[in-house]
Predict the 3D structure of the following.
Amino acid sequence: MTPELRDSAAFGAVFSDHMLVVDWNNGKWGEPSIVPYGPQPIPAAPSVAHYGQGIFEGFKAFPRPNGGAVLFRPDANHARMNNTCQRMAMPEVPASIFVDGSAALVALDRNWIPEKENSALYIRPVMFGIGEVLGVKPADTFRFIIETCPSAPYFSGSVDLIAEDVYVRAFPGGTGAAKCGGNYAGSMLAAIEAQKKGFHNVLWLDGIERRYVEEAGLMNVAFVISGTVVTPPLSGTILPGITRDSVLTLLRDLQLPIEERRITIDEVFDAHAKGTLQGAAGIGTAAVIAPLGRLRHKDREITIPKMGPESPLMKAGAELEGIRSGRIADRHNWLLSI
Ligand SMILES: Cc1ncc(COP(=O)(O)O)c(C=O)c1O
């Protein structure tokens, strides 16, 4: 690895030197091992390839001076992975593997964290059924892997979205709140079609009435309307984002108004028409706050106003980035130092 490659690599283009691997079989987890990054043989008919028991997580480690680093809320990602495990009939992963394993891996590959401001090491735990079972039932053997890769600062203009009125991402009782690969496979076609129309991704609407806003592509979403941050509630059809939770916590700290409630696409367009829509953003690990730009729904289109530093979402985003980088005290104990 050269520092140039590490600092300039596109997200996911290169992986760090090591990975953690451990299998679950006979009803229990084995001993995790940290090995050089590379192929890991699996049976010829792994159950994930047939019935899709494959799940993942994503979070980041940030550099500290003198070779240190911090992991941002690994316990929250661990809890979310175990919720996904439950929903997908997969065995839960103990903290000694997920959290301690991530920390050990980051400590070992610390020099893979890019040096640039706001850079990070992205941590990707993934778990999938590898047992050879053709009957439709949970796999009898699972593999859990943690891989890491350098993640450059997220530079972007605004994110243009088209409200999706053909495909749905989730519906009550489905897997929308789980971080399972199938949710992502099922959303790719919508994103490709949006891109062909000149947008970055879709704004997902609810699966029943196609009226309520749910997620902004691969991010949670929030609107600023008359000074209040309005974001869809964790109703079971959206992914409970760790960044969403962190931003809401910081907005509460700053005593800024929040409403976690259902919001229709019509309300967004009406607020824009009345001049009360002051901004909107996707919220997630990659960008923290990714301001939205153009928004289309059927044959109408608006440009969402740009948010300045005084916007509540931008304030909370700056606060969160300050905590991640160490400039602001970690008052919620979100950082795990290694
Ligand atoms: C569908 C979806 N929604 C929301 C998020 C944001 O979650 P987080 O803040 O934990 O990155 C992600 C990213 O993980 C996602 O894939």
Observations:
- The CA atoms of residues 295 and 302 lie 5 Å apart.
- The longest strand covers residues 141-151.
- The chain has a mean pLDDT of 96.
- The radius of gyration is 20 Å.
